[in-house]
Amino acid sequence: MTTTARSAPPFGRALCAMITPFTDGGALDLGGAQRLADRLVSLGCDGLVLSGTTGESPTTTDAEKAALVEAVREAVGGRASIVAGVGTSDTRHTVELALAAEKAGADGVLVVSPYYSRPPQDALEEHFRTVADASGLPVVLYDIPGRTGTRIEPDTMLRLAEHPRIVAVKDCSYDFLAAQKVLARTDLAYYAGCDEHNLALYAVGGAGYISTVANVVPDRLRAVLDAFEAGDTPVSARLQLRATPLIEAMMSAGLPGAVTAKALLNELGLPAGPVRAPLRPAGREAVDGLLTAYRELTDG
Question: CB count, 10 Å around CB of 184?
């Protein structure tokens, strides 16, 4: 049985890092985004994270980002939270995107560490504080040093946790010890950003997950958390392990999650469309491998 009472996470427990559907010609497909969002929420997602890594945010315009929030909000209403990715390498631009997301109807913003410039920790802390001060929306810190080149160090997290609007972390640090250290000393809601950590982080007090794989199997991932909440740890572990081959195929086989998620969604006849350059679509061999992993999970 679970032994620790949990407070309600700020954006729900089961969040999908949603892809951004495009038309065959590469334009933003708002109708497709609405259909996909409705499906994800109907199959168990408490929240949707838009314009993140999986949402191909580096290749969408500011106007497209705002339009996506507005369209998805129209589709899901109050059934799910919407967190808008607003992180850039420019503090001023990030503030502008946060204000636009607030106007468009987002419930929170996801702010990644500024990439390429690799600011030191004091500058990084100031960046996040500036964004948090700029709007009324709660902030999710996005720690993914493998992409940004800059870690949000645990001591920086501890200081940022004191800000009233910095409420959560999407953790892609692959540092489980640091995550537990911050969990033990703050009220930050920690969301697993790597699907293989969904259950492990939840078991030590994490808030849930922000998942790329949930684009394809939202109900299967939600079932892992539901079983753990019901006190059936062996079932939750078994469900997590059953999902592992698909997680590996989508996230650790050499292709970005946006590519693999869109490949599967397209094969399943669901809204996705192409990826935008410089990303390229998955080849046939990769798609066949993804389909095999998907079928092994969903046919059982």
Answer: 9
Binding annotation: 54, 210
pLDDT tens readout for residues 5-28: 567 899 999 999 999 999 999 999
Q: How far is residue 280's CA from residue 295's CA, in Å, rounded to a whole number?
A: 24
The two three-digit tokens of residue 137, written as one number: 């929306």
Distance (Å, whole) CA 108 – CA 104? 11
257-267 vs 233-251: helix crossing angle, rounded to 10: 100
Q: Are 36 and 6 in contact (CB under 8 A)?
A: no
CA 197 to chain CA centroid, nearest Å? 13
pTM higher than 0.85, yes or no? yes
271: left (phi over 0), alpha (psi -120 to 50) or beta: beta
pLDDT at 17 (0 to 100)? 98
Contact at 8 Å (CB) between 28 and 60? yes
Binding residues for pyruvate: 54, 210
Enumerate the active-site residues: 142, 170
> For residue 200, with 0-12 CB atoms within 10 Å meaning exposed, 13-18 middle and 19 or more buried, which class applies?
middle
Handedness of CA 244, 218, 198, 107 (dihedral sign): positive
Per-residue confidence (pLDDT) for residue 1, from 0 to 100 = 32
pLDDT number for residue 7: 78
Cα angle: 79, vertex 256, 178; to 5 degrees: 75
- b/e for 119-154, b at 16 or more Cβ within 10 A? eeeeebbebbbebbebbebbbbbbbbbeebebbbbb
Q: Does residue 80 carry a pLDDT above 60? A: yes
User: pLDDT grade, residue 159 (50/70/90)?
Assistant: very high
pLDDT digits (tens, 9 = 90+) for 105-138: 999 999 999 999 999 999 999 999 999 999 999 9
